[in-house]
Amino acid sequence: MLEEIGAIAERFSARKTLDDRIDEAFRAMRLMGFEALIYDYTPTPCDVGGRVEIPSLLKLRNVAGDMHDYWCNREYFRIDPVQRLAMQTSVPFFWNYDPDVETRISRFMTDETKPVSDFLREHDMLAGVTVPVHMPRGDYATVTGVRYGARREFRRDAMQVLADFGLLAQVFHEAAYELFDDTVFNARVRLTERERECLAYSSYGLSAKEISRIIDRSVPTVVMHLNSAARKLGAKNRTQAVVRATQCRLLEGTPYKL
């Protein structure tokens, strides 16, 4: 499989767009017996209140078109049992929404998550394998392969390809990640240039008074920008706002140096 992964990585590199690389991953997954692909990414797994974040990127292949609306706009992503487990592990896992089949997501299947179960059953997306990808800065992705229907042999088939699928998912994510742009990293938050500037100086430990001298604005104006940024980031204070902005890569590339 290592030689095959090497060849797949080369095919990823030959594709110049994110969607083309996703298509390439889907082709490889189908050879493993999967019939649909779900790929999501978010710069931060949870917001400051501890709720699961809605992904900045959700890409689907051979999946009902309304899933994007339900998972992102209607926030099913927050209550998805697969996502709740994926946030707690870095190990690929098999899942099944058949109530008579015990899998690792069973403990997350409650009345709260019933809308997710109902949607997936309605669309015959009962079983699959998910690979969590946890990155050093805290950003997070999952690569999921789905088999339609509740065929009992799928668990056996999925477990046989679990390691290979996990490796494929990691190689694919690396290839996809290098094509991400600011619209992916910063999709959930929009800061003004002045807000980014004030946060960047705050990240160096400067007070509002010190920042006001550097940017030649009044202290109340600096405080206003910092408070506005904190509000947009859902942060309770300035320190939390800096951490949140850093996690979301909002301060990368800023020209504001001491």
From TrEMBL:
The keyword Membrane does not apply. Pfam families: Autoind_bind, GerE. CDD domains: LuxR_C_like. It comes from the Bacteria. Keywords: DNA-binding, Transcription, Transcription regulation. The keyword Transcription regulation applies. Residues 184-249 form the HTH luxR-type domain. InterPro entries: Sig_transdc_resp-reg_C-effctor (IPR016032), TF_LuxR_autoind-bd_dom (IPR005143), TF_LuxR_autoind-bd_dom_sf (IPR036693), Tscrpt_reg_LuxR_C (IPR000792), WH-like_DNA-bd_sf (IPR036388). SMART domains: HTH_LUXR. This is LuxR family transcriptional regulator.
